[in-house]
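Quick one: structure for this chain?
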Amino acid sequence: MNRAVVLALLAACVGVVDVWAVVALGGAFAGVVTGNLVTAGHALAVAEPARLLPPAVAVAGFVVGVALWSLLRRRWPTAVSVPLVAELVVLVVLAVAWPLAPGATLPLLAGAALAMGGQSSVAQLLGQSTTYMTGTLTGAVSDLATGNGRRWPALRQLAAIVLGAVAGGLALAHLPVVVPALAALLAASAVVVRAVGDRRVQDDPVGPSAPQDDDVEGAPTVPLHPQVEALLNLMAEQGGAPPETMTVAQNRAMIREMAAVSGSPEPVAAVRDDRAGDVPVRIYTPEGTGPFPVLVFYHGGGWVIGDLDSHDPVCRSLANRSGAVVVAVDYRLAPEHRFPAAVEDAVAALEWVHAHAAEFDGDPSRIAVGGDSAGGNLSAVVAQHARDHGPALRFQLLVYPAVDAADQSPSMTENAQGPLLTVAWMEWFMGHYLTGDQDALDPRMSPARTTDLSGLPPALVVTAEFDPLRDQGAAYAAALNAAGVKAELRESPGMIHGFLQFGAAVDDSRALLDEAGAALRAALA
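Got it. Here's what it folds into:
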């Protein structure tokens, strides 16, 4: 029986159980039961029984919590706030103990689920006015249960709701107006949760807890490319901790070492280091007679890692294939320099290139911007800035760009564990780069959220199938086209985030460099 059939049958069974849970226990109970059954069913379908334990613990803790707090409620009917206080205690234990004892995740999860069961028993007593709080808590604990990399956002969700609910419960437990007052409190809590940015949704949200069938639109449809798999196996053999558990210095050393996977640096006519005002740059000149068009290139690395050396082979290859001078920008990195320092350097470098192009035999009327990952983000942001303030750009090369820091699209769930780039590592980057949750909605951080995309230069947007950023890149290309901007989407089946730098090991990396060079050459002719 193939995986699609197994998942379909499991989905049908879950639907039956969900209906039973709603009828027998009330809607407040259905979310956690259904969400964790889906997780368990998927673990069975993909033959990974080890993944059954967290959802089983979550459901068990939830059921015990319901029973315990229901008994307590019968003995002390006015003690509405007790389960909420217990949840707050569990939350504090989670926040303190998780980083200190990462191996204790299952006991901590059981405690969180138990406390949430108590909250749901209160929800049953008070009525549907607590639906939002219940939904938020079940979603947050489901994130913790399935280990999908959203640990700290889940804890912040719990904090925003539980703190408000505890205060309201303590104040209102003995008043006859408890239900409408708590409803008003929960409405305010909903605003708080959305304000901190962890329950942001897009205009057309897709629920992350739905069963993932092979036929679901946007889901991976081909296996990981054998060359990529072989490279990942080689990396795994070398060992090493998950990057989100490493220091900034260790991460920076790691990406420099990965430059070797790009292959031997190609010779170009000339390479020199310079400064664009206060910003270091490296200028690659191709063979031929100038003046040459110019590509201003911003390296990837989550605004925290990466430098001129990490992307040196890529810049050389692009210079040779595009026939353009490539000016690589060594913008300031976080956490030493947080948002929007990288944006400021990116804009300053572009303006310097336009003003000083003649000094390196460049043509200021033929300038493009480009970059990968965080560099793709900076390229999109700079393109929007240049449209409004100059200089005029001819093209933007966006390779698996990070364009929406509040993205909750399916690929963020499907590829939460990578390979290579994981949601946990993305959150590590964000934690070092952003000054607060409000930055995530700033168009200089999330260019996809700008109100007007018209008038931007043509774009080549590259996505990788097994990349959390896949869907937001595709959505940005679609939005550009809808705004009248010519944008080509280059999907890369079987590829992962970072494959632009795999030239020594992956054929499609070299093919992408060829295609990007050809697109730049045509746009800058």
